[in-house]
Amino acid sequence: PLGFAGYVSYRLQPQQQDLELPDGLLAVDATAGKALLVAAECTADYRTLSEAWEAQELVSYCGVASGVTVLNALGEPATQFSFFNDDTDAVRSRLQVTFGGMSLPDLAGLLRARGAETAMLHGDQVSVEEFRQLVAANLCREGDYLLVNYQREVLGQGRVGHISPLGAYDSATDRVLIMDTADYKYPFTWVPLTRLHAAMQEQDAATGRARGLVEVRAATPAG
21 near 178, Cβ under 8 Å? Predict the structure, then answer.
């Protein structure tokens, strides 16, 4: 018998599912997806994030994996175990995240506790065009990163909130590349920017607010 601790651990471990992408979404490793990555003009973050990227180790760790990915991309080494410390516990503890995930404000607060500089926007604080401009500016520029918190159901992927980094933007097709941390379910995926924006409008029950995004960069040195 697994016992209670073993059972809980088993239930929290991702189980390989290999789900098909819904219509309108495109895997980056498909022929057309690869072509988009070659053609896209805003790919400044893709290589760095690819080298730092981590899949989530627990089903509730999409935010942790996303945070660790950008911290490592910023040259601030972290693992999904070492991500938590006394400073992050003041925002949300490892136990709370393990059993309840994290909200958009939690994500921003946890990354600030790890020494990063963050700017948070709820989905209802940014129009589609403002989101497009922000995405294009960030993904054409090195040194800062975008994490999105969205409702998968709007993308046709089943009803659950999720967090992942954005790796590229193709203006010709108006698609963004989500570097999905849940690789046990989905690959890196090209998504229409308007659909991702709509998925960020969905309310998170934990906060009563729309989901959204966090822009992350290294903290500016004092003085």
Answer: no
